Amino acid sequence: MCDNRDVHKNADSKETNEETSSNVTRNNLLTLMDNFIEQIFQIRRTLLGVSICALILSPIAIGLSIFLITHSSFFSILEIQNEFGIILGFLLAAMISISSIWFVTGTRQYRKIGSWSKRYKEFMSEKEQTDRKLGSKYGY
Predict the structure, then answer these.
(1) Residue burial 77-91, b: 16+ Cβ < 10 Å; e: rest
(2) Residues 77, 75, 60: CA angle, nearest 5 degrees
(3) Which entry of 39, 89, 94, 132 is 20 to 30 Å from 80 by CA?
């Protein structure tokens, strides 16, 4: 014969298992999101390096290209070396335009990364405060 206590015990056990499963899923999701944000922060360092390289190397490439174009023997090389001179002119023009694009892109990216770092620090401090509040509330 089935006792009412067994039915209530099984129902309570089932509810507890569902709550535990829900809490584990929620914790896994939060941990996954925290890990994702941490990975983005690591990628930010790489992007910062690329931005700095663009900010340093682009002006050097532009300066070198302009120096070569404005050099006194540049036009004589263009006249003497027909095909080489034409290709050199196109390459220098391409170098200036591509380096200008990289410089603008590097500047924009550097600014965006700086603002993202500020927001990430705010997020981490809010997360730590929330963790402390929940830890003190639930005794963790």
Answers:
(1) eeeeeeeebeebbee
(2) 90
(3) 94
Could you give the count of Cα atoms lying within 13 Å of 22 in the half-sphere of its Cβ?
A: 6
Single pTM value for the model: 0.58
Predicted confidence (pLDDT) per residue in 36-93, tens digit: 888 887 888 888 888 888 889 999 999 999 998 888 888 787 778 778 878 888 899 9
Taking the C-alpha atoms of residue 48 and residue 104, their distance in angstroms, rounded to an integer, is 14
> CA 118, 122, 125: angle at the middle one, nearest 5?
140
Q: Which three-class secondary structure state does DSSP give residue 3?
A: coil
What are the φ/ψ torsions at residue 41 (nearest 5 degrees)? -65, -35
Rounded to whole angstroms, the Cα distance separating 125 from 127 reads: 5
CB atoms within 10 A of CB 133: 10
